Structures are given as structure tokens and as C-alpha cells.
Amino acid sequence: MASFFKSLSAPSLASFTYVRFSTKEQTLFAKRMSFLVKAGVPLVECLSLIRAQTKSKAKGLVYDAVIKDVSNGQYLSSSLGKHKRLFGEFAINLIRVGENSGILSQNLAYLADELQKKHELQKKVIGTLVYPVFITIATLGVTSILTVFIFPKLMPIFTSLHVTLPLTTRIMIAVSAYLRDWGILTLIGLIILIILFLFIRSKFEGVRTLADRILLRIPLVGSIARSYNLTNFCRTTGLLLRSGITLTDALVITSETTKNRLYRGACAQLAVQATRGEPVSRGLAARPDLYPDILSHMVAVGERTGNLSSTMTYLSELYEAEVEELTKTLSSSIEPVLMIVMGALVGLIAVSVITPIYSITQHLQPK
């Protein structure tokens, strides 16, 4: 559930289409609701207490709409179900099962725990990429400044002496001239291409599927993406099964909450097979490109022992540890490479400046 609220369909809330709750706010909402419901506080009063602590006017209106529905006798899950794009199938179904089974507080606690773990997993992956991105931007920035502003100031000295300049210096002169004349337009063009790609990716399912397929094939990065998706698949399925949702419904919900299109399609196929009574482990074994052997073997054991939810939870912890290890490996592998590239670029500029100066001084004769 990437966003707790993404758009609002009720007419009274139409002006707040882009209201968003952070993952921290989502987690706090589920935790507070779980605590209050467990303490025996009526549901409307629970929502009202949370509404009173909300400072944002837009978010307050969101709570008002839910409070109104619940006050009129609707289930909380029914109110949220009117806006599936806002709350997500995962949260709605957990709450629905909790209401029907009398374990709403427990399922809200499950929801808060799941949101927190997903957020922590995302932070690990993003945190690993922050430093390499920062170094890359710094390298490009320093190189651009040297090439566009510093290097051209030395060019009149070289050209006035009418000597043959080294190849590296001539390359730097050409690059400097290009960046000076076309650098801004090139940057704008790259930004437009990125925005265009993201737009096409969001509109065309085939493009998004192709991008997800390519991502999984990138060395090391693909391994991280694969382990990340396996972690979410196992944790979400295990949690849904533990909360009382049937296997077929759990797989359908897991599929709808999966972002990678390859894993989404594979999970949806697992749900179809489960509807026909086929074991999940057989479907997992049929897709070794997405699901490793250990996963299908462990799931088979869980199916035979009737302890599939615990097995999936254990596997999610296993793959989460694998994500953490892979992200550390990626970080430790990228850092020296980036430092070498940065040193090489700065060194190339230095050589391009020093070499012609040295060549000129060699031809100077004392008088």
C-alpha cells in the first residue's frame, strides 16, 4: 500500500484529490486504532479522537467522511471499500476479516506491523542508493564546472602559441565547447526524455512489464529487486493467511499490492491455480526464473504440515536478510568504482591542462 490516500472520489472531497498520508502516518493510524479498539472504545469515538489530532484540513475532511459512514451504521471496511484506490485492498480486507471475526484490534496491529516492516525495507534499499547517487551528482557537478568554467579560461593561452595540442586537450576543448553551447539544452532534453519515459511506463502495461523484466536482469541490482519482491510476497501472503483470509483471496490481494509486473502476473496465476485446488508450491516450482527452489520446497513443507502462514513469515525474514546483505554488497562495490571514475575524470582534466603547458615550456629557449 504505497499511499494510504491517493485520490478522493466523494464530491465533498473533490478538491483534495492529491492528499497523501506518509507511511509513518499510516502506521500511527493503524496502531492508534488497534490500541483504542482493544481498550473497548467505540469505533466512531476512535476515529473522532484521531480526527481531533489531525492538523491538516484536507486529511481532517478524509476522516470526517469515514466517521460519517461509520456513524450511519456502516462497517469501517465498507467505508474504506468505497475508495479502494485510497486505502488499498490489503488494508480493507484485513479490516473486514477483523470485523467479521471479532479480531479487529489484532488485525489492525498486523496492518501496522506490516506497514512498518515495508517502510523499513524500503528505507534499506533507498538508503543504499543515496550515497552512490550523491557521489555521481558530485562527480558530474565538479567535472562540469571544471570543463565549462575553468578549462575555457586557459584556452586562449594555448591557442595563442599556435602549437599542436595533445589529443586529451583537444577532446576537452570539444567537450567544453559542446557543454557551453548545448549543455543546458542537453540537460533539458534528458529531463524531458525521463519524464516521457515515466509517462509512457505509467500508461502502457507492456512498457512497464519490459522495464521490470530488464530490472531483474541487471547484475546485483536485479538480485536485490528479486529478493525485495520475494520478501513482500511472502510477508503479505503469510500475514493475510494468519489473519484468516483464504489462500486464494490472499494470493489475489498480494498480486494487487505487488508493483513488479512479472511478480504480479505470476502471483495472479498462483491464485488461479489455487482456485483449481492445485498446491502453491507446484506453481512456484514452475517459475524458477522468479521463485527460487528453496521457496517452493519450504512452501511445500508448509502445505503438508498445515502451517503455511508461519512458513511464509519465516521466508519473508530470510529474504529480508538477503536484501540487507545484497544492499551492503552493492554499496561496498559501487563506492570504489565511483571514486575511481571521479578521480579519472578530474585527472583527465588535469592532464589536459598540464600536458600542453609542459610541451610549451619544453620549447622555450632562455635568452
Written description of the protein model:
- By secondary structure, the chain is an all-alpha fold.
- It folds into 2 domains: 77 residues, Up-down Bundle (Receptor-associated Protein); 252 residues, Receptor-associated Protein, CATH 1.20.81.30.
- 80% of the residues lie in helices and 0% in strands.
- The protein is built from 15 helices and no strands.
- Helix 8 crosses helix 9 and helix 11 runs antiparallel to helix 12.
- The chain is elongated, with a radius of gyration of 28 Å.
List unreliable stretches of 5+ residues: 1-16
The chain-level mean pLDDT equals 80
Give the termini separation: 80 Å
CATH architecture classification name of the largest domain: Up-down Bundle
For this structure, the CATH topology of the largest domain is Receptor-associated Protein
Short account of what is shown:
The protein has 15 helices and no strands. The termini are far apart.
List the helices and strands and how they pair.
Layout: H1 23-38, H2 43-52, H3 57-71, H4 76-81, H5 84-87, H6 89-101, H7 104-160, H8 167-203, H9 205-217, H10 221-242, H11 247-256, H12 261-275, H13 280-285, H14 293-305, H15 308-362
Helix pairs in contact: 1-2, 1-7, 2-3, 6-7, 7-8, 7-10, 7-15, 8-9, 8-15, 9-10, 10-11, 10-15, 11-12, 14-15
Provide the descriptors you would attach to this structure in a database record:
367 residues; mainly alpha; Receptor-associated Protein; 2 domains; disordered N terminus
